[in-house]
Design goal:
- The chain is an all-alpha fold.
- The chain has a domain of about 375 residues.
- The protein starts with about 25 loop residues before the first helix and ends in a 44-residue tail after the last helix.
- The relative contact order is 0.14.
- The N terminus and C terminus are likely disordered.
- Its main location: membrane.
- Probable chloride channel.
- It comes from Aedes aegypti (Yellowfever mosquito).
- GO terms for molecular function: intracellularly calcium-gated chloride channel activity; volume-sensitive chloride channel activity.
- Pfam families: Tweety.
């Protein structure tokens, strides 16, 4: 029967040497990780999600990133305690190296987040393959249950009832007693064969009654419908946070850097926790992929024998189909029932001409032919190739593409957690030294006064240079020498004799007609027209005795 089954579409795409499941290398590596319980005793690493000790070992593995989170937060706390009270003003160029470091680490963090997005897509595709293959297996199992139910219902509710009615008719008296005995014997044989076929169909359907994965598939669809976009949203938020940091570094924004320091702590915590979750899940999936058939046998209902599961997961030609014997019995019984009904159809019309047996006999024969068609369909449905192909699709989708994506997400979350920790450290070190512009002006002014104290003679020579007197037109301010100031403490550095000489010189110039003017002087003006104004139409005065402009006058 198995040889007469037409080839399943899609199965022939696999090579002959690739029709069995092979454990991927990454699953072997994850399965090889030691599993310890709370007392640090090594336990069996067979995938048993219902075992509390096994779950305890996965929790211990997942707590490793949590321990790293505590260490990183404690280190950050110690750093902030040492730096929060440091209010020493720094020049702008002192944080350039910090800004460059932040930019490089942020770009690397964005790359790690991109790797997480790629892994999330691989995991999503792998889980979709698992769910799709699961639906095919569930459909095949449901089809077998439905066909066997129809077969049982046809044999019990239709054929047996009609045979009982025929038996009542054949109990009547007839002249040919020998033919009547032959008729009754053929009818009894038909009823016996129908019972055998019904029992065989019931034996096929009974192990499959409790086998349903519809609820599991529905929950898987709902979970993946939340997990995939949720992971994308979380990683997108991390990218936005990195963008905020880059903008803050580029714009020299203290607010943006402080915002990242606050949100970065949440991002670091979430990344380490995600690393722990991904590590535990990766190890669990690696344990599952090491021997998925054993897990299926362990989780199967008690009514489903293990040889049935092993037959469909391996589909080895050396194994016989566990349903073949029952199908053969049912098929032989239906054939015998059809032959017996042929005898009944020949004898009964002769013995019971006026009983109207034609419709009843035709209905029984039609139902027997229906049962034969159902058995033919069942023979194709219970073949191992279709279910085994779905099993291979599910295991390869989960243990190759899905597990690879999960490991990429683990690596990405671990790298992002480390890089975000470094970013928070460097960012906290950077925004502390970012001040307002007045702070930088004060730093530059202090540097200028310090330079004047070291070279007072050069500064005095610079101070004696003024704008040219013969220039016509608006005053021209040229370079830093014209507006250079001697500093606020220059007057206090003069000796009493120098201050008295300076005061005497100032009084003499006032008696000679005021200060020097910029541009035109009275002696240079030949126009007879008298110009009105406080300076007789001349430009404003700016001499070496005017108030020195300092940095604070511009803020």
């Amino acid at each position: 029967m198995q040889g007469s089954t037409p080839p399943i579409s899609g199965y022939s795409g696999y090579p002959e040497d690739d029709d069995q499941y092979k454990v991927p290398l990454i699953a072997k590596l994850l399965h090889a990780l030691p599993h310890y319980n709370i007392t640090f005793h090594r336990i069996n690493n067979t995938f048993r999600p219902s075992n509390d000790v096994y779950l305890e070992s996965l929790g211990i593995l997942g707590s490793i990133p949590a321990a790293l989170l505590i260490v990183s937060l404690f280190g950050l706390l110690l750093y902030l305690l040492t730096r929060c009270c440091d209010r020493k003003p720094r020049p702008a160029h002192s944080i350039t190296s910090l800004k460059v470091t932040l930019s490089i680490v942020t770009v690397l963090c964005c790359a790690a987040i991109g790797l997480g997005l790629y892994g999330n897509d691989d995991l999503h595709n792998g889980l979709l393959e698992v769910l799709q293959a699961g639906r095919k297996v569930d459909t095949a199992v449901s089809s077998v249950r439905n066909q066997t139910f129809i077969l049982e219902n046809t044999l019990t509710m239709k054929i047996q009832q009609q045979l009982t009615e025929l038996e009542d008719i054949f109990d009547g008296k007839t002249n040919n007693h020998t033919a009547l005995l032959q008729l009754q014997s053929a009818l009894a044989a038909t009823k016996g064969n129908v019972t055998i076929a019904k029992n065989a169909a019931n034996d096929i359907r009974r192990p499959l009654v409790g086998l349903t994965i519809t609820d599991f598939l529905s929950k898987g669809d709902q979970w993946e419908l939340i997990r995939w976009p949720g992971t994308v949203a979380i990683l997108a938020l991390l990218l936005v946070l990195c963008a905020v940091l880059l903008v803050g570094v580029a714009r020299h924004s203290r607010c943006a850097l402080i915002l990242f320091s606050v949100c970065g702590l949440l991002a670091v915590t979430g990344s380490w926790l995600m690393s722990g979750l991904y590590l535990s899940t990766s190890v669990a999936v690696g344990d599952l992929c090491n021997d998925p058939a054993d897990f299926l046998v362990h989780q199967a209902p008690n009514e489903l024998p293990s040889d049935i599961l092993l037959y469909y997961t391996q589909c080895d030609v050396s194994r016989s189909n566990p349903f073949t014997q029952r199908l053969r019995e049912s098929h032989n019984a239906i054939n015998n029932a059809r032959n017996s009904m042929t005898t009944v159809s020949k004898i009964s019309p002769v013995l019971f001409k006026n009983a109207g047996l034609g419709p009843k006999l035709g209905s029984v024969n039609a139902d027997i032919k229906l049962c034969e068609r159902i058995l033919t369909q069942l023979t194709a449905l219970v073949d191992c190739k279709a279910v085994h192909y779905s099993y291979l699709s599910a295991t390869r989708g989960l243990c190759e593409g899905g597990l690879l994506g999960l490991v990429l997400m683990l690596i990405a979350s671990f790298m992002a957690a480390i890089l975000l920790t470094v970013m928070v450290w460097v960012d906290s070190h950077t925004w502390i030294y970012i001040r307002k512009r007045n702070d930088y002006a004060q730093v530059e002014e202090q540097s200028y006064v310090s330079a004047h104290q070291l070279h007072p003679q050069n500064h005095q020579n610079m101070n004696t240079r003024t704008l040219p007197h013969q220039h016509k037109g608006p005053p021209v301010i040229s370079g830093s020498q014209t507006l250079a100031h001697p500093g606020r403490n220059l007057k206090h550095e003069m000796t009493p004799q120098q201050q008295a000489h300076l005061h005497h010189h100032h009084q003499a110039m006032m008696r000679q007609g005021g200060t020097h003017t910029l541009g035109r002087l009275p002696s240079h003006n030949n126009s007879p027209t008298h110009m009105h104004g406080p300076n007789n139409g001349k430009y404003a005065t700016l001499s070496k005795h005017c108030k020195t402009l300092d940095a604070n006058d511009f803020y």
